[in-house]
What does this fold into?
Amino acid sequence: MAAVSVESGARETPVTKAVREALYAGVISFGLFVLFIGLRTDQNIRNELVLVQRWGLLAIVVFLVMVGRFIYVAFILPAIARRSAARAAAPTVVTEKGFVRRNLTSVAIVCLLVYPFAMIMLVGLQGSLKWVDNFGIQILIYVMLAWGLNIVVGLAGLLDLGYVAFYAVGAYAYALLGTQLGWSFWILLPAAGIMAAFWGVILGFPVLRLRGDYLAIVTLAFGEIIRLVLINWREVTNGSAGISGIPKVTFFGLFSFDVSAPNYIAKVFDLPTSGAYYKIFLYYLILGLCMLTAFVTIRLRRMPVGRAWEALREDEIACRSLGINTTTTKLTAFAIGAMFGGFAGSFFAARQGFVSPESFVFLESAIILAIVVLGGMGSLPGIAIAALVMIGGTEILRELQFLKRVFGPDFTPELYRMLLFGLAMVIVMVWKPRGFVGSREPTAFLHERKSVSAAFTKEGHG
Amino acid sequence: MNDAILKVEHLSMKFGGLVAIGDLSFEARRGEITALIGPNGAGKTTVFNCITGFYKPTEGMITLTRRDGTAFLLERLPNHEIPARAKVARTFQNIRLFSGMTLLENLLVAQHNKLMKASGYTILGFLGTGTYRRASAESIELAKFWLEKADLIDRADDPAGDLPYGAQRRLEIARAMCTGPELLCLDEPAAGLNPRESLALNALLNDIKETTGTSILLIEHDMSVVMQISDHVVVLEYGRKISDGDPTFVKSDPRVIAAYLGVDDTEVTEVLVEVGDEQVIEELDAEPDRDHGPADSASMLAGAITDTVAHSDDLGERMTISPAASKARLVEASLHGVPIEGPPDDLTVIKGIGPVNQRKLNEHGITRFVQIATWTSEDIAAVEEYLEFDGRIKREDWVGQARRLIEAGKGGERK
It folds into this structure.
């Protein structure tokens, strides 16, 4: 806000200072808004341009600004000063971390496991559908994609703007093989992963020698190529119309989620017919896939190949001087990152029952990359939080129907999704430039595990 | 054991028209510390980059013989295979640590190839087999060993970027040693160290030499380090070797003193006046195919100026370096017996040298009977070629005449 900072004498009380600053703020905001808000051009019934005067609205806005500035200067600033003074004065006491902080991972996993049942209890079986599907599954897909991309970008430091291509490969692999050959999801899931990994290596080869911006551009182009092939290769992919009727996942063939099937879950367990079972099953499935991704990432980080990835991010020349084959190291990073993208893709196809090139546009790549960067490159919990905030936050906008009462019935909060996304990114990057969790957990230790501050880690040169 | 671990033969490295290394040959013996010294821009780091595969040399052969007798031609190995197979490790002039990783992790990354094999290229290790767990424990033991040697064990869990400069240098050496090298190449390990750290570094290097038998090749500017620890010193200047021997020999070699420690400026200009000026350079430049041989070439005519003039092969463009470039050459001329004071001798006294030839010879810095008296047959051949004679010098016995003139006391006093 229009901050007019005036050096004031020590005798001035915060309130008088606040009053003065509020007046300054009011003047400045009046100056700014008088033409924006106070006057509006409009057409009248005879198609003439007329000036509509909105002095009331202008007064409200200016008043709000003044009140805001007054509260900020009179109460918030002194409170901040008091707190920092208290912190400086207090001796540094090593506070014992609370139970939740110490067992963050276990607590989070337990919460995720009980989430669908908690939702059923809160809003009923049918009501839980939306919360499990739109929030649970949607967020977890992005968590998995971001964790997969994290291997390439966060660990190996290779900037990949075309990650959605592997997502698309996985989705189409399941969609095509599932509809044409009728193979089960459980066979096609690893197949889709392998196929995506193969394409990861194919992409890896030409970009091995590229770094930084050039690498980003080539990966971006790769993502677009895959999407354009999907649109134009009509004989196979059915073009932009997409593939529908993708078979549902079965519970390892024991019972199915297809209402017409004889072993439909509601018939087997004598439950009321509902679509919620399938959603809950998919929720646990993607949760399992996420856990698999996390497990593999954590495990690989402690293996020589994972350390080589991180070393590659830190200094490629030093890596070569230590006899590390940077070619294969980069290719494994691309392949494993792509594999998880492929897993997520085949899950996506199974969940939607329909895939089309629309789902694999560049924006998806950008969102996944934004989640990785916001979460803190290399940090699994940070990325999970970022996915929760960014995807959950944009989903929750759909729920804010009361805003229609404030802004009128034409107001659709979903349209402001991207605006808020961008705003959140700017705020996070200003507040925490290295993402939510910037520090890095070492993979081995002699005496004690100390996390490495973000000041020392490098982002990689591409 | 005194066999050569590293043999560099006729190594040349050209960047466009710039000759960074010209026909360099030297050897590093097994179990010794070989120092590569020279003034700034002498091409030391380029030599290192050629040995460790970061550059592919334009010409020449670099042979590394391992303890078991297998020989590797380093210029043919891919970059990362040089440390992995030929067991050559290196450090960098500007320290290249994995600053965001802890000290321990840095040393574990260095054992990548060993651990990769033990983990069955990740697959067995991922399944958690005993082989990998044992190898992993061993690698931590090795890392601990080197951390203790480098006196860094207390900070094993700190990020490498958090260390002070001297400790970073030691860590880089420890990291290189974790690859289990037979030849350790250190690029200015003492740069930026205070005297105490420098002593600790000497101790560490001697310790490495003694306990592991690793041969060390070292670039260094700090003469105290070089003189104290090295067994053998190779001196470079402008990409050429100007001296090669044990530290005491090199220390007293006037060429080295001139090149590396520098001669007085006045002395240089004096020599310059005698040796030649811009005009001479141009004249010599016009001559094709000049001998670009190694520094201790016998020919006097491959004198100070021509050797600092590099010819680019591909475009035929010429690159000229100022005549003052090679200080070692100026002194080399005086080593052939040229006094740098007093008036020049009248060469026309020698039968067969007319005023024209005298001028030509003078342009080359040959102004004294002593110089002619010490000509070898190669020198004579070179002069014949230069003056476009065929056997006249020998026929008229210029060398003999010059000797007799000196004996008669007609030549200038030798310095």
The interface with chain B takes residues 299-300, 303-305, 307-308, 310-311, 313-315, 317-326, 332, 440, 442-450, 452-453, 455-458 of chain A (CB under 8 Å). Residues 2-80 of chain A form one domain.
